[in-house]
Amino acid sequence: MAYGQTGTGKTYTVGRLGKDDPSERGIMVRALEDILASTSSRSDSVAISYLQLYLESLQDLLAPEKTNIPIVEDPKTGEVSLPGAAVVDIRNLDHFVELLQIGEANRHAANTKLNTESSRSHAMLVVHIQRSLKEKEENDTSSVAISDESSSRHIPLLLKSKLLIVDLAGSERIDKSGSEGHMLEEAKFINLSLTSLGKCINALAENSPHIPTRDSKLTRLLRDSFGGTARTSLIITIGPSARHYSETSSTIMFSQRAMKIVNTVKLKEEVDYETLYRKLEYQVDYLTSELDRQQKLRVNEKVHMEKELKEYEATLAEIERNFAVKSENLEKEKSHLELEIKKLKEDLNTEKASKDRMSENIIQLETSVKHNEQQQLENSLYQKVLADTTKMHEQKIVELLKQLEDEQSRSASLEKQLNETKQHLSEAQRLLQMQENIAKDIKKELSRLKEESTSQIKLLQQTNDELLSEKALIYEELKSVQEKVLYEARYRKSLEDEVLKLKKALSENNADLESRGTYGMIRSASSLGGGDAVYMPRPIKTRETISGQRDTISKIFEEVGLSNILALLRSEDLDVQIHAVKVVANLAAEDINQERIVEEGGLDALLLLLETSENTTIHRVTAGAIANLAMNGSNQGLIMNRGGARLLANVASKTDDPQTLRMVAGAIANLCGNEKLHVMLKEDGGIKALLGMVRSGHNDVIAQIARGIANFAKCESRAISQGHRKGRSLLIEENALNWMVANSTTFSASTRRHIELAFCHLAQNEENAREIISTGGIKELVRILQESSREDIRNLAKKALNSNPLFLSGIQ
Ligand SMILES: Nc1ncnc2c1ncn2[C@@H]1O[C@H](COP(=O)(O)OP(=O)(O)OP(=O)(O)O)[C@@H](O)[C@H]1O
Questions:
Q1: pTM, to two decimals
Q2: Distance from the CA of 7 to the center of ligand 1, in angstroms?
Q3: CA nearest 152: which of 415, 425, 406, 413?
Q4: Number of domains making up the chain
Q5: Residue of the nearest CA to atom 6 in ligand 1?
Q6: Where are the ARM repeats (predicted)?
Q7: Beta bridge partners of 45
Q8: Which of 234, 253, 271 is a domain's end point?
Q9: Alpha-carbon distance 613 to 610, whole Å?
Q10: How far apart are the CA of 36 and the centre of ligand 1, in A?
C-alpha cells in the first residue's frame, strides 16, 4: 500500500509503466516482471483484476460498466474475493502493461465523468497466482502400491497466492484542503476509509482481539491482506516542504503504528480436489483392469500347467512301459544265456576235446554276460534318471501350486487396495460435492444480487423513460418558443413603427382627453398600478433614439407606463386599440411583465376586448396576448375562471383567418398543459373548439392543435398514474381519437410526433383501450413502435402494447 498526502508520489512509486525505460517502472510492473520470471506457464497461472474504490463504490477498471462490485468474505477462511470483477490471465509483461494502460484510461474516463481526480479514489491491482504442486506424499502407509507407485502415493495440491497493490487516495485532512459540496462528500468518504484503515492498523498494532474491518469497503477489501497470515509492505510518501509539516508528521505517526504489526506469513495450500478426483478415478480403472488381466493370466497359467502335467504323466507312462519291455527282454536274454551256459558246461563235461574252443566260447559268453551286466547297470541308471525326473516334475508341480497360492494372495491384496482406493474416491467425491455446494451458494448469492440490481435497473429505466419523454416535450416547447422568438424578432421590427404611432396617439389622446376633461380617468387608472401619480407625457423621441432602443421593450414599458398602455386598450379609436393590444401582446411575451399586466387589470381588459371587439386584427393579437399569458401556470387558472376558454372558443367559431386560429389554438394548447383545468376546459367548450379548428387545414393551426392534444394527454396520463383522476380520457369523450388515428401520418414531422405522443399517452390508460381498439388504434401503436423517429415515443408505445392484454390479443 502506498499512503501519503496528495502529490507526494504514491502513483509515481506504484503505478508508473516505464514503457520506454525499464528503470522508470513502478512497483506494479516490477512485481509482475518478478512473478512472471519465477513462474512457468505449464504449472502456474497468473491473473489480475484492476479496480478503483470511489465514494464507497467499487468499479472494475478493466470492465468499467461493472460498478458497485460486491465484496465476498469466506466465513471459514476469512478470504476476501470479488466474484463480480473481471479476472484476466496474463500472458506476458507486455500484455500486463497493456491492461494497466486500459485500466488507467478507464480510471481517467470514469473520473472525468464524475468530475473528480485520480487522487480522490483508491486504485487496486489484485494479482492471483496459482501453482499446481508436484503433489504431496501421503503419510498413510496402508495404501497399496500398484504398478505406477510413485504417482499413486501423492495428493495433487494447489499453492495459491494473492498480491494486492494499493495506490491509496491522498490522506490530507478536510479542514486543510477546504473542501466543500461534492468535494466535501468525496473527502468524507476518503476520510472514512483512511480513518477506518488507521483504526484497523491501531487495533492490529495493539494486538486487539477485534479488528474493525467492517467499517469501510477499503478495510473489508484489505481484511485478508494486513495482519494475520499476509505479508504487508507500507510505502509512506511525504512532501519535504515545511508547509506540509503537520501532514508529514501525521503520516509518519501512522507508519510508526503500522510498523508495530507482527505478521506470520503462511502459505496457502489447497488440495486440488478436481485433479485428485480424476486421478483416483483413473486408479480405480487401472486397478480394475489389472485385476481382470491377472485373473485371466492365472486361468491361462493353470490350463497350461494342467496340460504340462498331463504331458509329463504320459511321458512317464511311456518310459515305464519301455522299461517293462526292456526288463522283460533282458530277463528273457538272461535266462536264455543261462540256458546256453548250462548247455555249454554240459558240453564241456562231455566234450573235453573241444576244451579250448569251449573255454574260448566260455570267455566269449563271459564277455557277453559282462556286456549284459553292463546293460543291466545302464538300465538301473536309466531307472534312477527316471525317478529323478519324476521327482523333479513333482517338485515343479508343488512349485506351481505354491505360485498359484501366491497369485491368490496377491489378488486378495489387490482387491483390498481397490477397496481402499474406492474409499478415497468416495471421500474425494464428498469433498468435491462440498465444494460444489459452496459454489452453488455463491452462485445463488450472485444471482440474488443480480436480480436486485436488475430490478433497480428496471426502476431506473422507467424513471429514465419518463425523463426522456419529459425532455422531449421540453424540447418541443423550446422549439416552439424558438419559433416564437423568431416570429417576435420580425414582429419587433415592425413594432418600432408601432411605438412611434402609439406615442403619437397617446399624446393626441391625452390632449384630446384633457380637452374633453377626462384626463383624470387615465390618471386614476395609472395611479391604480402604484406607478406615476400623474401621467406626464414625455416629449416624443426621435426615430433614431427609439430605433436604438427597439429591442428593449422594458424601456417602452417604463417610458409610456403600463397603466397608460392598458388604458389605451379601451380607446374608441380602433387604430389606437390595435397598436395598444400589439404592445401588450408583446409585453406579455416576457415573463417578467406578465405578473404586472395581470395585476394592473391587463388580463380583464384583454378578455373584454376579445368579447366586445368585432375586428379580426384585435381578435388575432388579443388571442396572441392571452396565449402568452397562458404560458404562466398561475395565469392559466385566472384565464379559465374569467371565462377565457369560452371567449377563445367563441372567436374560433366565428373566423377562418388562419393567423387568428393559430393564436386561439396556441392559447388553448397552453391551457391544456394544466391538468387541474381539464374538466373546466371541456365544460367551457375549449377542447371542442381546439379540435374544431382542424377544419382550417392550415399547418400552423394544426401544429398548435397537436401540441395542445399532446399537452392534454400527457398531463392526463400523469394524473391517472398518480391516482388524481380516473376513467376515460376527456379527449376521447370529445372524439379526438378518430382524427388522431386518421391524421397521424399526414402532417409535418413535429406535428406527427405530437399526435404520436398524445396517442401513446392515451394508450397507457386501460379505460381508453376499448375505444383505441375500435378506432384501429392497435395498428397505429404498432406503426409508432416501428416507425416513430423518437425513441421515448417508441418506448411509450412498447410499454402500452406490453402492459395491456387486450392490445396483445389484438395484435395476435
Ligand atoms: N520521486 C519522484 N521523482 C520525480 N518526480 C516525482 C517523484 N515523486 C513524485 N513525482 C512527481 O510528483 C507529481 C505527483 O506525484 P504523484 O501523482 O505520484 O503523487 P500522488 O501521491 O499519487 O498524488 P495523489 O494522491 O494526488 O494521486 C507527479 O508529477 C510525479 O511525476
A1: 0.40
A2: 5
A3: 425
A4: 2
A5: 9
A6: 560-602, 601-644
A7: 130
A8: 271
A9: 6
A10: 27
Q: ipTM score here?
A: 0.96
Task: Indicate which atom in ligand 1 lies nearest the CA of residue 8.
Answer: 21
Candidate of 3, 5, 6, 11 to mutate for ligand 1, largest count of ligand atoms within 8 Å of Cβ: 11
Q: How far is CA 229 from CA 45, 78, 264, 558, in A?
A: 22, 11, 5, 82
Instruction: Read off the pLDDT of each residue in 68-75 and give the average, rounded to a whole number.
Output: 90
Question: Do 117 and 88 have their domain in common?
Answer: yes
Domain with 115 in it: what CATH number? 3.40.850.10
pLDDT band at 150 (very low <50, low <70, confident <90, very high): very low
The cell numbers describing 81, all together, are 474475493
pLDDT digit string (tens) for 21-32?
989 999 999 999
324 has pLDDT over 80: yes
Whose CA is closest to atom 14 on ligand 1? 7
Q: Is 578 helix (H, G, I), strand (E, B) or coil?
A: helix
Please give the pLDDT value at position 182.
Answer: 60
Residue 743 lies in a domain: no
Query: In this predicted structure, which of 23-32, 209-218, 339-348, 506-515 has the lowest mean pLDDT?
Result: 506-515
Are residue 32 and residue 94 in the same domain, yes or no?
A: yes
Query: Terminus-to-terminus CA distance in the chain, angstroms?
Result: 63
Q: What one-letter code names the amino acid at 654? A: K
Are residues 256 and 329 both part of a single domain? no
Is the confidence at residue 389, as pLDDT, over 50?
yes
Distance 50 CA to ligand 1 centre (A): 20
d(C-alpha 606, C-alpha 627), whole Å: 11
**Mean per-residue pLDDT of the chain:** 81
Residue from 12, 183, 191 whose mutation best tests the ligand 1 pocket (most atoms within 8 A of CB): 12
How far apart are the CA of 126 and the centre of ligand 1, in A? 22
Exposure string for 192-214, b = 16+ CB within 10 A, e = fewer: bbbebbbbbbbbbbeeeeebebe
Which atom belonging to ligand 1 lies closest to the Cα atom of 119? Answer: 27
Residue 94 has pLDDT above 90, yes or no: yes
Instruction: Classify residue 799: in a domain, yes or no.
Output: no
Query: Of 406, 424, 446, at which residue does a domain stop?
Result: 446
What are the pLDDT digits (tens) for 518-531? 322 222 223 223 33
Binding residues for ATP: 4-11
Q: Which atom of ligand 1 lies nearest, measured to the CA of 9?
A: 18
Which residue CA neighbors atom 23 of ligand 1 most closely?
7
Task: Please tell me the residue having the least CA distance from ligand 1 atom 27.
Answer: 119
Which segment of 104-113, 423-432, 482-491, 541-550 scores lowest on mean pLDDT? 541-550
Question: Ligand 1 atom closest to Cα of 14?
Answer: 18
Range of the domain at 238: 2-136+155-271
**Residue 469 has which C-alpha cell?**
419523454
Ligand 1 centroid distance, CA of 650 (Å) = 76
Q: Which residues line ligand 1 (CB under 6 A)?
A: 4, 6-12, 118-119, 170, 237
Backbone angles phi, psi at 216, to 5 degrees: -145, 160
Please indicate, yes or no, whether residues 238 and 284 belong to a single structural domain of this protein.
no
Whether residue 18 is found in the same domain as residue 120: yes
Q: Residue 19 Cα, ligand 1 centroid: separation in angstroms?
A: 18
* Nearest CA-CA partner of 665 in 695, 625, 704: 704
Shortest-distance atom of ligand 1 to CA 118? 27
Residue 87: count other Cβ atoms within 10 Å of its Cβ: 13
Which residue among 1, 3, 5, 8 has the greatest number of ligand 1 atoms within 8 angstroms of its CB, and so is best to mutate? 8
**621 lies in a domain?**
no
Decide if 16 is inside a domain.
Answer: yes
Packed helices 699-721 and 355-516: angle between N→C axes, nearest 10 degrees = 120
* Cα(8) to centroid(ligand 1), Å: 5
Is 705:754 a contact under the CB 8 Å cutoff?
Answer: no
State the closest ligand 1 atom to the C-alpha of 170, by its place in the atom list counted from 1: 25
Closest by CA position to 748, among listed 688, 795, 701, 794: 701
* Cα-to-centroid distance, 255 and ligand 1 (Å): 19
